[in-house]
């Protein structure tokens, strides 16, 4: 996991949109909807908080065990060590039951972020044992962040993003807004509002921006929740059989179009439905039933 201190180096927005979408789809495909729904509650702040008077090594192992349980990994011996290193943290991926995690020495004095660093690394173990991964390193790290957030531990990574007069820091590979987006996708499915857990003002702001992007996707044509202006534009483009460059849908079958494809707002799998009617579309990957006015 990267080790960033300077806030002016933080990228904002949604530059990894394609990789984030692919990660959500892959997670649903590998775990199945039932598997994803085994994580209905996010890890609690109490489970991952390290007290100032708590022994550093014993407390760190306690937090690691809590995250192992949360991610439904087998209970096993956990070895967490601190050392000077380029990155924030690293994990050893082995076939055995033990967990070996290394944390950057700076976390000795930044206890509040130990849970965030451990969440990312322990999710690496989960993905390794699931056999879920992408060919490229960058895509795999994004997959790890997305999985951490979507399965209920990634709010820690977003809350570790801070920018104030005392310190500037960001953990993880997603932008703050992308973390907020994935957390909002999770919130839509599980009805879980992570906003009370944020202690960082800039993390909360990123969550709000990510939530707005997720809400926009849930109200985009051909979904029935689309607003009047979006539906009017959609109807005009459907009649001419060609969608605009920035449209969240694509048409097929001439003019007027006979079919439309769009992304499932839950798992981001591409769906295709007939046009010119009101219908319910069921996603074959996540099982969501979507009201469409196509």
Could you characterize what this model shows?
- The strands form four sheets. The chain has a three-stranded mixed sheet, covered by helices on one side. A three-stranded antiparallel sheet has the order 6-7-8, with no helix packed on it.
- It has nine helices and ten strands.
- It has 294 residues and is α+β, with helices and mostly antiparallel strands.
**Structural class based on helices, strands and sheet pairing:** alpha+beta
Largest sheet: 3 strands, mixed
Write down the secondary-structure element order. HHHEEEHHHEEHHHEEEEE
Percent strand equals 5-15%
* Shape descriptor: elongated
Distance between the termini: 43 Å
Put simply, the count of helices is 9
Count of beta strands: 10
Helix content bin: 40-55%
Mean pLDDT value: 92
Poorly predicted runs: none
Strand order of the largest sheet: 1-3-2
Radius of gyration: 21 Å
Output the keywords:
294 residues, alpha+beta, three-stranded mixed beta sheet, three-stranded antiparallel beta sheet, 9 helices, 10 strands
Q: How would you concisely characterize the structure shown here?
A:
With 294 residues, the chain is an alpha+beta fold. The protein has helices spanning 17-36, 45-48, 56-70, 114-130, 137-150, 155-159, 176-190, 201-218, 228-240; strands at 78-83, 89-92, 99-104, 162-163, 168-169, 249-252, 259-263, 270-274, 278-282, 289-293.
Topology:
Blueprint: H1 17-36, H2 45-48, H3 56-70, E1 78-83, E2 89-92, E3 99-104, H4 114-130, H5 137-150, H6 155-159, E4 162-163, E5 168-169, H7 176-190, H8 201-218, H9 228-240, E6 249-252, E7 259-263, E8 270-274, E9 278-282, E10 289-293
Parallel strand pairs: 1-3
Antiparallel strand pairs: 2-3, 4-5, 6-7, 7-8, 9-10
């Amino acid at each position: 996991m990267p080790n960033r201190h300077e806030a002016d180096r933080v990228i904002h927005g949604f530059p990894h949109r394609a990789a984030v979408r692919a990660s959500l789809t892959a997670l649903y495909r590998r775990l199945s909807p039932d598997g994803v729904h085994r994580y209905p509650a996010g890890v609690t702040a109490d489970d991952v908080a390290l007290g100032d008077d708590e022994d550093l090594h014993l407390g760190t192992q306690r937090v690691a065990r809590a995250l192992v349980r949360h991610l439904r990994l087998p209970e096993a011996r956990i070895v967490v060590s601190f050392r000077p290193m380029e990155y924030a943290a690293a994990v050893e991926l082995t076939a055995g039951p033990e967990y070996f995690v290394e944390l950057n020495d700076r976390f000795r004095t930044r206890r509040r972020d130990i849970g965030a660093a451990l969440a990312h690394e322990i999710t690496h173990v989960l993905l390794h044992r699931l056999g879920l991964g992408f060919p490229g390193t960058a895509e795999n790290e994004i997959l790890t962040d997305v999985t951490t957030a979507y399965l209920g531990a990634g709010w820690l990574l977003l809350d570790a993003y801070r920018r104030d007069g005392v310190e500037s820091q960001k953990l993880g590979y997603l932008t703050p807004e992308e973390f907020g987006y994935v957390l909002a996708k999770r919130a839509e499915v599980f009805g879980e509002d992570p906003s009370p857990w944020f202690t960082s003002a800039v993390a909360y702001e990123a969550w709000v921006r990510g939530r707005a992007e997720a809400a926009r996707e849930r109200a985009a044509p051909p979904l029935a929740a689309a607003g009047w202006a979006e539906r009017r534009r959609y109807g005009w483009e459907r009649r001419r059989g060609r969608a605009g460059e920035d449209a969240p849908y694509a048409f097929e079958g001439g003019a007027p179009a006979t079919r439309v494809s769009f992304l499932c707002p839950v798992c981001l799998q591409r769906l295709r439905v007939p046009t010119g009617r009101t219908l319910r579309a069921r996603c074959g990957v996540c099982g969501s039933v979507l009201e469409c006015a196509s």
